Structure formats: C-alpha cells, structure tokens
C-alpha cells in the first residue's frame, strides 16, 4: 500500500499531458487519482476523463504508449489502470 501511494505521488508530480492531447486543456486532476481516493469519486472521475479521451485526436497512440508502460495511475488513452492491465493480460495470452 505504501509503495502504491509512493507511485501515485510520483506520477502526480511528474505527469505532463501530451501537448496534442485533449487532456492538455483540462484540469489534470480529472486524470490523476490521489492516495485514499474513495471508489465512488474515482469511478466518477474516470468517467469524466474517458469522455475527454473519447474526443482526443491522439487516442490510439496514447493508448498504445500507456499499454507499453506499467504505470498503475490515471486514465490514459481512454482506459483506467485496471482496464490497461486487462488488455495487457489478454494480449499476453494471444
Ligand atoms: S487519449 Fe486521453 S490521456 Fe491520452 S492524450 Fe488524449 S485525452 Fe490525454
């Protein structure tokens, strides 16, 4: 748990939205979780972020880039960390 909190803090401190991304003009807090974020708040925030990603011109590139990392924080390419993990696992078995 402590390790995860450190990862969240690190990503929060260093994440810069891609300049061409729709998220570049949106409050970055929409995309980033925070330690201790309640599940209800997280789910609502993730849906807000996904709506931004849905109108992003670099969605596919961003998604592949996020899938190539194992960053467990934030919505990227329209996918939550759990969804990215599921895609990685599916790809690993094909
Ligand atoms: S797909 Fe989402 S996270 Fe990626 S650049 Fe676009 S808006 Fe940002």
Secondary-structure map:
Elements: H1 2-14, H2 39-54, H3 59-68, H4 81-92
The protein binds iron/sulfur cluster.
Subcellular location: Cytoplasm
InterPro entries: 4FE4S_WBL (IPR034768), Whib (IPR003482)
Domain 4Fe-4S Wbl-type: 22-86
Question: How would you characterize the overall build of this protein?
Answer:
- It is built from 4 helices and no strands.
- The radius of gyration is 13 Å and the shape is globular.
- 54% of the residues lie in helices and 0% in strands.
- The chain is mostly helical and 94 residues long.
- The chain has one domain.
- The protein has helices spanning 2-14, 39-54, 59-68, 81-92.
- Keywords: 4Fe-4S, Cytoplasm, Disulfide bond, DNA-binding, Iron, Iron-sulfur, Metal-binding, Transcription, Transcription regulation.
- Belongs to the WhiB family.
- This is Transcriptional regulator WhiB.
- One of its GO terms (biological process) is negative regulation of DNA-templated transcription.
How would you describe this structure in keywords?
binds iron/sulfur cluster, mainly alpha, 54% helix, 4 helices, 94 residues
- Low-confidence runs: none
Percentage of residues in helical conformation: 40-55%
**The biggest beta sheet, please?**
none
Output mean pLDDT.
92
CA radius of gyration: 13 Å
Structural class: mainly alpha
Domain 4Fe-4S Wbl-type: 22-86
Keywords: 4Fe-4S, Cytoplasm, Disulfide bond, DNA-binding, Iron, Iron-sulfur, Metal-binding, Transcription, Transcription regulation
Cofactor: [4Fe-4S] cluster
Subcellular location: Cytoplasm
């Amino acid at each position: 748990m402590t390790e995860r909190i450190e990862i969240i803090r690190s990503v929060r401190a260093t994440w810069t939205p891609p300049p061409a991304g729709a998220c570049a003009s949106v409050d970055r807090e929409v995309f980033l979780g925070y330690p201790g974020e309640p599940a209800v708040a997280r789910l609502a925030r993730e849906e807000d972020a996904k709506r931004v990603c849905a109108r992003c011109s670099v969605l596919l590139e961003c998604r592949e880039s996020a899938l190539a990392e194992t960053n467990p924080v934030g919505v990227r390419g329209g996918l939550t960390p759990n969804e990215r993990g599921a895609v990685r696992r599916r790809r690993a078995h094909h």
